[in-house]
């Protein structure tokens, strides 16, 4: 479709800032191949290129077909069958890894009742049912029917059968409800109809309940997902757009990880909270519906939610390639496995790429051609859709080991969001599928860029929220993390996300026909992610550019000065210590870059390399402070914790300022601003100290 | 004096458990000397022995004389003069270190008023003063007079002038006040007279205030400190015993670190709490007195406390020897510098040893004879007496760097508690001064031992509380720590501590005449601490024995099973996961020991050594959980956090059990028991995971 052009881009990488720069260097002269890895061996560019060439679009397509053949909701038999598929692939004698194991956690999930389907109906005052919403999506391709397609529901919403007048509450934000109240609309006992977007899923019910609302409906608005198109002939299976009956499922839990075992792995013996006392579940019954139904709802509505909580076994699968030289340095690469229904895009497009990449590397490994310098850990996470559960439990169980040894975490969940064209490419370059042979780097920089004082125009990276399994790695453990995907051209569509997201229409046929015919975008993601993985696992010096981090700090500082400077000055709070700390970081980062350059020209001894790499690896850890945001579960990273405002700056400082703004001088809220500023200054000073020469204590 | 025989022992080392074993190996055949350190160089036993021989008792004596010549209360001009002395020594061209710097924090200290001395007086009901306590100690040696001898006071006790009937409240524990109340004694508005011991200094006032007590006096009972002797001819200067006028000063602050900047370094720009809202200060006026006065106090007492809080600059001094091979691995060795008065024993006996050790090492360094494999950081901490302030601020400021790189922290504060005899010793052995040529090891094992299932009888180590500057290192940062001292024979005296502790009688003459004439015990401490330091900084493999840690865990487990097993079973809480975790730790530790042995026989490559040492170094870190004890400021170590009960077992579990014991099934207190058990299991599993082969994720 002409209006949805394709774009190669990398979305939402936080901390591997330097990699962007490095990805552009595909023209570096190739080194000669040394078959036996030694402790002096750097990344072998010939092997890298060979791997790039072997990553095969048609194999990714076959992977995706197999992965998305059946619905595979977390902990379902089909999900477990995929665990076996992964184990079989990763234990294959010809293309498997060194070892692969599944590990299982017992976690609290939420499902609709089979016996009593959730129901949304319109009644008249005497109780007659005038209209009932669909209880499942329309079976348009033969894949939306059958017992394994979970009906649309809001996971973790409590059961209940509220009824009341319907009130349209826009996105269900705090502001939306305040406006309704200001207009004199009685909210007590009503059913709020809200649309997806603007705030988290569960937050809509939290906001609603504060005003006495009895139940919440959430629908997907065609304006938000289909650029306004809503008729059947304009939507799937006639285009990639969401059909009228499509309903976005999702987890309505506020936090992530198993709800019963915060900060503890959900092993059978672990202490579990009483489910009745768990915080973070929606306070009132909530149900998602399609826009077809949403536009009919007008008056008195009955909502019947029969969701129930169940303790289920959910598996992660881990596949390992042992490092030849530094086996105690782990480069992690993962994606979740579970889907709401078939999940062809989310998450199988990522897993299909993962399997192709592990096949190519496994084959080299089994042939004895190659073994990485550092260990590679491939992961297939369980129960992500319910709140990043598998990955979070993993970080809780292996907290110490990961903090000590993890170099980086690469996440490829939805690998391709948008349509692509297939193109031939000159050898040695990764093509950006739709853009006439531009390299990934050139394509990337074309759509997402920023101006660097050092390098000029460079690709820009988004920041990492909690949208996929990278969240516990970056926020809880302080491990440099990256999320990679090809997305669509946002100048051509305003879709909030790809339209069939979390619906029964996210199928293999949808991907094959509309998202990436020919799978060249998938192949490009495989090459991009593979290249990042290889560079992290094989480079003598870790490809982490600390000066880029300095640029981010500088931009955060400037934003703080511009947006908060006057306010802080009025309250006699000086930003000078923060300025000094940023300057120290920049100085230490620049000097470290020079030391690396100098060492690269010499023949560094292996311990010198290791010491320097430890500085690079542990930099991200220095930004963690578990006491910084005690109210924000799992968030300890002082730079990437959630921000309430829209300005890209230091989150703790910005949030504290926005809370203090309307309080009086000397209030606890202003003390908290000062505390947050000190926490930040100490973290930045600590980060700078980590980058300085190790012998200068 | 016959009844105070001497004993060589090491008190209170927690985590360097393996070193005990290693200290016994002084008879290992000597290696040949390699002048240029290479990455394969192990500890050179010839150099070690040469260092042992050069540690000179008479120089230690001279150091002590100089250090304790004048009172040097934290932040006083005399304390600052000692900062200059340390800098001069550590920058000496012939015996200095690579570099030395002082760094200053601005911290909240507490002092008595010069204008209005604190006063304790007995009055009759009409207000006439019948008797006044001494406001300073008797000037017995000419050193107890003068403006620089701070009068006895309770640091951080609030000012106030309460008066009321005197009630004798024993040690001022919660139990003591409960007993008085049970006897029908009215406590409201009284002055409680308590003796030192049984509970922390500040806790006496906290307990008293709960019963409405208006003021607290604390005296040193001759039964606790002088084996009952109290007359002037039986006490100093006629013996080492405390004279009647002696008063123990001390900090009455409940926590440690600067009270205004918990978890933040007390840099000028750091956020500071409002002093009026600080928790942890005694709630009511409190004053220490001597036993001479204590026995006179009988009736209505007026207490006038005029202490005031002051922000002061307090310095740490750091001296560095850069490591030749692994400069990013730090072995820290420290002691505080500040004293209450002259502080000859506390802390100058430790600093005198520190200076002698740094002189000998500095001399080798300047000659080019030796440079350690790892970096050595010598530290002289400020304001320890007020609550470990200098060391705590240091750990707050360099949190990340220390967690990443510190191998161990060695503390030598009071280096010699007791009297010693001087003996000659055969070469190559460190004599235990009073015991006829027994080695330190043999002497140690004679007085403090335990039975190891692996090694048979071995020296035993105490566990580390918060008595000196090791506390923030072990509890807050999880750095393996050790406290070394020679103490007196506890079968010969029941003194709670050496008698002149924190009084104006702790002078050079006191040490020279009574504590260690000839300074051979000081020399033995220098040799012991020096040997530990060298072994940590120079050994190819870190001398940390992880199997010994396993023995501690096993003994904690057995104690838990014996003391808590039945109770837990009654509440359906199983210890099986804990048993399994301890077994996993033991298995992993044993296997690691074997790998080290095997590697030591081969020629390990430098990265293999480094990887293994990282496992050893980071083991202690795996026991940290900042969310385990949120109420216990700075305490994050799940094995060494404070325990309320007397059984040596896992503190979190034991404390939670004792709180839950009398609550009903299903109470939050029982949930907390289960949470603590899970926290412990996860920490031990994480520790075992850190010890397992690094390539087996």
UniProtKB/TrEMBL annotation, chains A, B:
Peptidase M28 domain location, by residue? 316-513
**Domain Transferrin receptor-like dimerisation stretches:** 573-692
In its keyword annotation, does this UniProt entry include Nucleotidyltransferase? no
Which keywords does the record carry?
Answer: Aminopeptidase, Calcium, Cell membrane, Disulfide bond, Glycoprotein, Hydrolase, Membrane, Metal-binding, Metalloprotease, Protease, Signal-anchor, Transmembrane, Transmembrane helix, Zinc
Mark the transmembrane ranges. Answer: 7-28
Q: What processes does the entry annotate via GO biological process terms? A: proteolysis
Purpose: Aminopeptidase with broad substrate specificity. Has lower activity with substrates that have Asp or Glu in the P2' position, or Pro in the P3' position. Lacks activity with substrates that have both Pro in the P3' position and Asp or Glu in the P2' position. Lacks carboxypeptidase activity. Lacks dipeptidyl-peptidase IV type activity.
UniProt family annotation: Belongs to the peptidase M28 family. M28B subfamily.
How it assembles, according to the record, is: Homodimer.
Q: Output the PANTHER family linked to this UniProt entry.
A: AMINOPEPTIDASE NAALADL1 (PTHR10404:SF50), N-ACETYLATED-ALPHA-LINKED ACIDIC DIPEPTIDASE (PTHR10404)
Q: Can you say what this protein is called?
A: Aminopeptidase NAALADL1
Lineage runs: Eukaryota, Metazoa, Chordata, Craniata, Vertebrata
The gene name reads: NAALADL1
């Amino acid at each position: 479709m002409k209006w949805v052009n394709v774009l190669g881009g990398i979305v939402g990488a936080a901390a591997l800032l330097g990699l962007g720069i490095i990805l552009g260097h595909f023209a570096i002269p190739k080194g000669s191949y040394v078959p036996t890895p030694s402790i002096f061996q750097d990344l072998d560019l010939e092997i890298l290129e060979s791997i790039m060439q072997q990553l095969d679009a048609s194999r990714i397509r076959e992977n995706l077909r197999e992965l998305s053949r059946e619905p595979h909701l977390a902990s379902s038999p089909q999900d477990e069958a995929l665990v076996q598929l992964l184990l079989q692939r990763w234990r294959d004698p010809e293309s498997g890894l060194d070892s692969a194991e599944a590990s299982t956690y017992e976690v609290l999930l939420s499902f609709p009742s089979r016996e009593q389907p959730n129901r949304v109906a319109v009644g008249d005052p005497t109780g007659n049912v005038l209209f009932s919403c669909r209880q499942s999506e329309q079976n348009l391709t033969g894949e939306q029917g059958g017992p394994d397609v979970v009906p649309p529901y809001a996971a973790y919403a409590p059961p209940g059968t509220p009824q009341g007048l319907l009130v349209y509450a826009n996105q269900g934000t705090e502001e939306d409800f305040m406006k309704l109240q200001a207009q004199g609309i009685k909210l007590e006992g009503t059913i709020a109809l809200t649309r997806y977007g603007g705030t988290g899923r569960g937050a809509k019910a939290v906001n609603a309940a504060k005003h006495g609302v009895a139940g919440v409906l959430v629908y997907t608005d065609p304006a938000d997902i289909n650029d306004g198109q809503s008729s059947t002939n304009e939507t799937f299976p006639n285009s990639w757009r969401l059909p009228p009956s499509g309903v976005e499922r999702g987890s309505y839990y506020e936090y992530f990880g198993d709800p019963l075992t915060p900060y503890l792995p959900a092993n059978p013996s672990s202490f579990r909270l009483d489910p009745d006392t768990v915080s973070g579940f929606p306070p009132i019954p909530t149900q998602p519906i399609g826009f077809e139904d949403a536009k009919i709802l007008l008056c008195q509505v009955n909502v019947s939610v029969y969701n129930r909580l169940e303790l289920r076994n959910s598996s992660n699968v881990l596949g390992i390639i042992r490092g030849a030289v530094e086996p105690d340095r782990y480069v992690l690469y993962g994606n979740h496995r579970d889907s709401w229904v078939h999940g062809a895009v989310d998450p199988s497009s990522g897993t299909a790429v993962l399997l192709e990449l592990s096949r190519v590397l496994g084959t080299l490994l089994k042939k004895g051609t190659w073994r990485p310098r550092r260990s590679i850990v491939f992961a297939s996470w369980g129960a992500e859709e319910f709140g990043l559960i598998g990955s979070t439990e993993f970080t809780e169980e292996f907290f110490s080991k990961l903090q000590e040894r993890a170099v980086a975490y690469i996440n490829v969940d939805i690998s391709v969001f948008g349509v692509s064209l297939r193109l031939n490419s000159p050898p040695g370059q990764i093509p950006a599928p739709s853009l006439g042979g531009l390299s990934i780097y050139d394509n990337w920089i074309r759509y997402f860029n920023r101006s660097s004082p050092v390098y000029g125009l460079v690709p820009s990276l988004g920041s990492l929220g909690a949208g996929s399994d990278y969240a516990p790695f970056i926020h809880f453990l302080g491990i440099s993390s990256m999320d990679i995907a090809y997305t669509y051209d946002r100048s051509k569509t305003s879709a909030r996300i790809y339209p069939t997201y979390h619906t029964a229409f996210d199928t293999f046929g949808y991907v094959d026909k509309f998202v990436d015919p020919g799978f060249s975008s998938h192949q490009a993601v495989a090459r991009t992610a593979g290249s990042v993985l290889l560079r992290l696992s094989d480079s003598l010096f870790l490809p982490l550019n600390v000066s880029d981090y300095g640029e981010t700090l500088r931009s955060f500082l400037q934003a703080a000065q511009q947006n908060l400077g006057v306010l802080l000055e009025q309250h006699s709070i000086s930003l000078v210590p923060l300025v000094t700390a940023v300057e120290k970081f920049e100085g230490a980062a620049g000097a470290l870059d020079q030391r690396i350059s100098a060492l690269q020209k010499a023949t560094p001894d292996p311990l010198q390399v290791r010491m320097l790499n430890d500085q690079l690896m542990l930099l991200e850890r220095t930004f963690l402070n578990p006491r910084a945001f005690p109210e924000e579960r799992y968030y300890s990273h002082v730079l990437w914790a959630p921000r309430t405002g829209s300005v890209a700056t230091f989150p703790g400082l910005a949030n504290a300022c926005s809370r203090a703004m309307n309080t009086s001088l000397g209030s606890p809220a202003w003390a908290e601003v000062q505390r947050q500023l000190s926490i930040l200054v100490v973290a930045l000073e600590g980060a700078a100290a980590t980058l300085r020469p190790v012998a200068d204590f």
